[in-house]
Write a structure and sequence with these properties.
- By secondary structure, the protein is an alpha/beta fold.
- It has one domain: TIM Barrel, CATH 3.20.20.70.
- It has eight helices and eight strands; from the N terminus they run βαβαβαβαββαβαβαα.
- It has an eight-stranded parallel beta barrel, surrounded by six helices.
- The longest helix is centred in the last third of the chain and has 14 residues.
- It is globular, with a radius of gyration of 16 Å.
Length: 221
């Protein structure tokens, strides 16, 4: 089943609780949070305090994407629910095992994200493969919403899925950045399970329910 993660980065933060409620009612599967520190990426968004405050305003699982140089710090500040997802970038840490173990100890799910220029081997290292619940393939350069999808992402998703399958892993594959009704079916066909959508939901010019249904419908073809 195709799962849609609504990227809250471009939501109306003046009415955040209402946006969370609307997304849940519209059929989103996840709420996706892009935490940016202005260092790992040249943009600054929000930290753990806002995510923790919003946690009680939504019944959906949270997908927290750490685009930061010190993911351990943010992980220590988060207050999430069992089953929520926390992802850090493979480029940000030399060895993610300690963070992934901490995430599991807290009852959350953990993952690694791969930027466009990074080979997939870094995320699929045998040393921490058993600790991964999700591998996130970036479809754009991390840091800003609304970018154009990088077509080479399609083959990267296929390669990630093939390597996971070859090792007998049912790890989820998530694609973040530039996802739309055109590339969604191609991504699912190549092995993606979760699609992160920001512009395709918030800037679609139609109600959230319709935008999410269109994206899910195209991905299911």
């Amino acid at each position: 089943m195709v799962e849609i993660a609504a990227s809250i980065m471009i939501a109306d933060f003046c009415h955040l609780a209402g946006e969370l409620k609307d997304l849940e009612e519209a059929g989103a599967d996840w709420i996706h949070w892009d935490v940016m520190d202005g260092n790992f990426v040249p943009n600054l968004t929000f930290g753990a305090w806002i995510i923790n405050s919003a946690r009680e305003a939504s019944g959906l699982p949270f997908d927290v994407h750490l685009m930061v140089t010190d993911p351990e710090l943010i992980i220590s500040q988060l207050t999430l629910r069992e089953g929520d997802l926390v992802v850090e970038h493979v480029e940000a840490v030399t060895d993610p095992r300690a963070d992934l173990l901490t995430i599991r100890e807290k009852g959350w799910r953990g993952g690694l994200a791969i930027s466009p220029a990074t080979p997939i081997q870094g995320a699929l290292d045998e040393a921490w493969m058993s600790l991964l619940d999700v591998v996130v393939v970036m479809g754009v350069q991390p840091g800003f919403a609304g970018q154009t999808f990088i077509e080479e992402t399609l083959e990267k998703v296929r390669s990630v899925r093939r390597q996971l399958n070859s090792r007998g892993k049912d790890t989820l594959v998530e694609v973040d950045g530039g996802v739309n009704v055109t590339n969604a079916p191609k991504l699912i066909d190549r092995g993606a399970n979760i699609l992160v959508a920001g512009k395709s939901i918030f800037k679609a010019g139609v109600p959230y329910e319709q935008a999410i249904a269109s994206l899910r419908g195209s991905a299911s073809r």
